[in-house]
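Subject: Interface between my chains keeps coming out wrong

I've been trying for a while to get a sensible model of this assembly. When I model each chain on its own everything looks fine, but I need the whole thing in one frame so I can look at the contacts. Pasting all components below, labels as-is. Any help appreciated, I'm running out of ideas.
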Amino acid sequence: MIEREQVLHVAKLARLSLSEEEVETMVGELSGILEHVDRIGNLDLESVEPTSHVVALENVLRPDEPRPSLPPEVALSSAPEPQDGAFRVPSPQAE
Amino acid sequence: MTDLLQMTALEAHEAMVAGDLAASEYTAAWKEAAAGDDLNAYLWRNEDGEDSQAIAVERDCVAPIAVKDIFTTEGVPTTAGSRILEGYRPPYTSTAVRKLLEAGAPILGKTNMDEFAMGSSNENSAYGPALNPWDRGRVPGGSSGGSAAVVAGGLAPWAIGTDTGGSIRQPAAFCGIVGLKPTYGAISRYGMIAFASSLDQCGPLTRTVSDAALLLGILQGKDPCDSTSVGLDGGVSLPDREDLSGLRFGVPAELGGDEYDSGVRAVFEQTLRKIEELGGEIAEVSLPSSEHGISAYYVIAPAEASSNLARYDGVRYGMRAGGDGDLVQMYETTRSEGFGPEVKRRIMLGTYALSSGYYEAYYGQAQKVRTRIAEDFSGAFAGVDFVVTPTAPSVAFKLGEKTDDPLAMYLNDFFTVPMSLAGIPAISIPAGLAAPEGGGPQLPVGFQIAAPAFGEQKLLDAAYALEQGIGFDARPEGL
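Reply #2:
Try treating it as a single job with all components included. I did that and got this:
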């Protein structure tokens, strides 16, 4: 159903690094789940409109007025590595 | 002291308002009860420390409440049952909790849950599962398992949880209490940590239908911070209906009997007879697309989750691991160490379903099935007032019984997922006891009643009349 290569590709898209054992388990489990899910693949739903949201709402707008927001020190208070009023992250390129 | 804990939240509220009960004494009694948590049901308890200042109430006149650890609470730990949020103290409070505090309900604590609300047994919590007070070798259900366990186990008078595919109703059924999933949009989702945004909804877990009505009245309402919230027109009144005359209850023709245990079936059929005794009418309805509910749900919910959980990247809050490598390594290490197996599985499933080449076949098709399921309900409600089913296919199962088989765990949501996909309100009330398949002491069975969107008042009124008729008064041993 789902191949090892696909699992590795999807893990990369999802920013997950899976152990060898996790990859093995994932191949089996995802295949089982997808086999069940595939039952809807054969339904003829050509003319059916998709539902993305159940309540009929359109363009909920509010006035564009400035309002107070979290002060920077509060917004940074939960960060693993705040520095100089910003979120510090490792370099995007390996050194 | 014990007498105080026997009162329903409504009785206590009325006594406090009348001046017959000192709120401080009542809240203290519950704090003491909560401190005796031997069910691993609380992840954090309000013990009047420094933490508690942020969530103090000005004047308590509403029963203290347990809150699922998915609701952000300023200055108070909020983990969503995940390692990735261990130690996180949010800088803001969710609308649901803010409304509770404003109404005068002190927060007793934050309750255990399946990680990011993904699970039906509480076994996916990074902090170990909450236990079922009826039998500690069994699960309390999930994902709001901690909230159900504290109410059933005498550790809180009432609680709030969230329901995405059954996460309030199924644990309520497993623990012998009342659980209500309101219409999507009835209660604000602001500050409710997102799992599947088009399905997630906050709701009450209580001992009685009247308590659920009181709590829903406090929580509901349109909120500028959640543009999908609409509230309930006219609020919520306490139910007082005594019979079910003139009301029609639809039983899905597709309910064969293979889908659930014989003990559950016996209680379900006995409840249908009770409805007739109370003057209600039982009719057959057709929900042909409901059998595809699980398939559609396990595409839509993981797809939305894979997007919602992209925010946990070790940058702005929560844990960080692998900070010595480059940026992508840090993301991957943080997420791989921070998320548990079920969350990874769903992120993988959702990412796959949304990936190039598969989107239409999975996500597109699932959204069309969703339309069909909603149409089935609209069709059914043209002829009946309510649709009724068992809440879950079995009574509470044993710890570890389904952990090796994700699909078997997912099928537990068979009866609850269709209402979530349709966005309609549904309540589970305790209807009786049944022995588990394979033997053992008797355990609670839930009866689910679903109503058209925004039909909460009518739903609560009918559930109340049925609750009085059933007279369920069994409690876990020692309570």
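Reply #3:
Confirming on my end. The longest strand of chain B covers residues 426-434.
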